[in-house]
Amino acid sequence: MRVANFNPGPGALPVPVLEEAARDMLNWRGTGMSVMENSHRAKAVIAMVEEAEADLRSLMGLGQEWAVIFCQGGASLQFTMIALNFAGPAGRCDYINTGLWSTKAYKEAKICGANPRLAATSEPDDFTHIPEAFDFDSEAQYVHLTANNTVRGTQWKQYPKTPAPLMADMSSEFLSRPLEADRFGLIYAGAQKNMGPAGVTVTAVKRELADRARPDVPSMLSYPVLIKNESMYNTPPVWSIYISGLTFKWLKNTIGGLEAMAEINRIKAETLYRLIDQSGGFYRGTARPDSRSHMNVTFLLPDQELNDRFKKEAQAAGLEGLGGHRSVGGLRASLYNAVTQDDVNKLVEFMREFQRTRG
Amino acid sequence: MRVANFNPGPGALPVPVLEEAARDMLNWRGTGMSVMENSHRAKAVIAMVEEAEADLRSLMGLGQEWAVIFCQGGASLQFTMIALNFAGPAGRCDYINTGLWSTKAYKEAKICGANPRLAATSEPDDFTHIPEAFDFDSEAQYVHLTANNTVRGTQWKQYPKTPAPLMADMSSEFLSRPLEADRFGLIYAGAQKNMGPAGVTVTAVKRELADRARPDVPSMLSYPVLIKNESMYNTPPVWSIYISGLTFKWLKNTIGGLEAMAEINRIKAETLYRLIDQSGGFYRGTARPDSRSHMNVTFLLPDQELNDRFKKEAQAAGLEGLGGHRSVGGLRASLYNAVTQDDVNKLVEFMREFQRTRG
């Protein structure tokens, strides 16, 4: 029996993707091997990785002025790579702080010897919204932000105009809506939200920007090295790319692209926010309404005991992964691409019933 | 139809491991989700990672004086991590050069600002054997070597006594034989040879050594940070750890441990070397006999045309992955743990027949 999966990441994957992966486990594309047992230099694997990249480019509308690479190490390693490639020791860079992951990115820039600066922060308001005022350093080599804040349930609706190239951690909203890519110099996303299994990270970076990266960077952390080797400087995480590639095809062919996906995601999120807003205060959203995320819906019940009971009873009812991040507590429903409207309807039904009997 | 898989890595995985992974794809351990869709903070996933670590420790006989972590980025990122954690800018370190991967490790230490030095090299003999004489720097912070040389088909039979902690890239021989772990300060191995899918790297490091690591290292590259967070500083590559864990159980329960595995591997390798040595010079092994690897058997035919024809006809006969590394050409049969004696017998039969008809 499958559950309704509201995990914050790793999270739900499309069932047809899992079914295809299971079916082809012992003999993938007629190679007589699992995709994991093929050499990464085999024609079939190179073709698969190229297909994944092409499908991703087509979904996102990324032209050849962008390099697209599959990396390892998650978003956390990108924090380091961005600082090393584009700021370096004593380099200047701006960070916008919207919560836990932004803070981590800022800290890694410091460890790399760069001088990161806060151009904006919503910390004084406990990260309940996206900042509106910015103080950019005209000498900064880049500006970094987190597009969707998984922990706090906030999401950018409009991106700021920045004097330096904008670099964005898109992990928890990647491929959930169309993106004005031209606003950015570099975007990156760990796979384990909307794309595939943990273990691969997509980075898209404008080639003219990558060309200006610092030369003194370890090979595995150097964007130019990874780009030149077309994601195969060393053995790439083939399985994670493979599952991500199947998800790209599902997004293109079954869902119909990012406009269609965004509309499905909008309705899912609105279904849940409506229930919260109409609960007479029994459920309380923690993000300011104008900053609410379509990916992670964070909310609280009147007291801790009810929070705990909700989590426990939801899990017993087949609604998985509703606990808030361990740093903030509360509740959180993550509505990634593979979470269906039917899953959300089940959750809303459960929430109505919970309020009726416990409220 | 499954092929006989002699790929150099990614390579063959045990069929029962693949069958279990396929079977549990939509509902792993009764969670109602794939293992990939579970949160890495879920009890079932934490238990799975702990089991994998415990099985690995038991297979290798690693006590609590060792930290064992699952990393990302392959052996190539370990090259950088070792230099950053244990040498650092202007630090001194010794490298033993036995081929392509040793050279890469050395180069990364240089990029990190350390002063790597060659304590021995078999480059003058075209890397056909393991060095016998060493010139260690008594001030070096560590000595690095590559245990098995995938490209050249050489393998250490006895490790040198070193004045500084010995660090070894074990990627292509990991878990293929018992290991005198106490000879080492740190060992590491990419999964994609004897363990599981590309995307995870195991590192075992003596705790007292890790405690002396430099503090100014980016979090994702810091051994102490990864150890303290028990492989979960950020989302780990759950699928790759899961498949590796299934392989550890197969090694323990089906094979019977590393002594038994080593014996199977010895017989596989000897079957193939015997055929080569008895071919009257038609097949010529490229490694010096006393340095021959049990994992990667490298050989040549009398001319390039025969090499090419061999590769092509072998592939048509269901014998996969026999091409030599692109840097050296020739032929190579990789006999990792999941390659069976039956696979090797098929190869030997093919080689006899090829010599009979083309020799």
Q: Could you please describe the fold and organization of this structure?
A:
- The structure is a homodimer of 359-residue chains.
- The first copy, chain A, folds into two domains: 16-254, 3-Layer(aba) Sandwich (Aspartate Aminotransferase, domain 2), CATH 3.40.640; 257-358, Aspartate Aminotransferase, domain 1 (Alpha-Beta Complex), CATH 3.90.1150.10.
- In chain A, strand 3, helix 4 and strand 4 (115-121) form a beta-alpha-beta unit.
- In chain A, the strands form four sheets. Chain A has a seven-stranded mixed β-sheet with strand order 2-10-9-8-5-3-4.
- With 359 residues, chain A is an alpha/beta fold.
- The first copy, chain A, has ten helices and 14 strands.
- In chain A, helix 1 (15-23) packs across helix 7 (238-255).
- The mean pLDDT of chain A is 97.
Which class of secondary structure composition applies to the elements of chain A? alpha/beta
**Beta strand % of chain A:** 15-25%
The greatest interface here is: A-B, 70 and 70 residues
Strand order of the largest sheet of chain A: 2-10-9-8-5-3-4
- Which whole number gives the mean pLDDT of chain A? 97
Quaternary status: homodimer
Helical proportion of chain A, percent range: 25-40%
CATH architecture of the largest domain in chain A: 3-Layer(aba) Sandwich
Instruction: List unreliable stretches of 5+ residues of chain A.
Output: none
Q: How many strands, what sense, and barrel or not for the largest sheet of chain A? A: 7 strands, mixed
The first-level CATH class name of the largest domain in chain A: Alpha Beta
**CATH level-3 fold name of the largest domain in chain A:** Aspartate Aminotransferase, domain 2
Overall outline of chain A: globular
Count the DSSP helices of chain A.
10
Question: What is the count of β-strands of chain A?
Answer: 14
Task: Tell me the domain tally of chain A.
Answer: 2
Q: State the end-to-end CA separation of chain A.
A: 30 Å
CATH superfamily annotation of the largest domain in chain A: Type I PLP-dependent aspartate aminotransferase-like (Major domain)
**From the alpha-carbon coordinates, what is the Rg of chain A to the nearest angstrom?**
21 Å
Order of helices and strands of chain A: EHHEHEHEEEEEEEHHHHEEHEEH
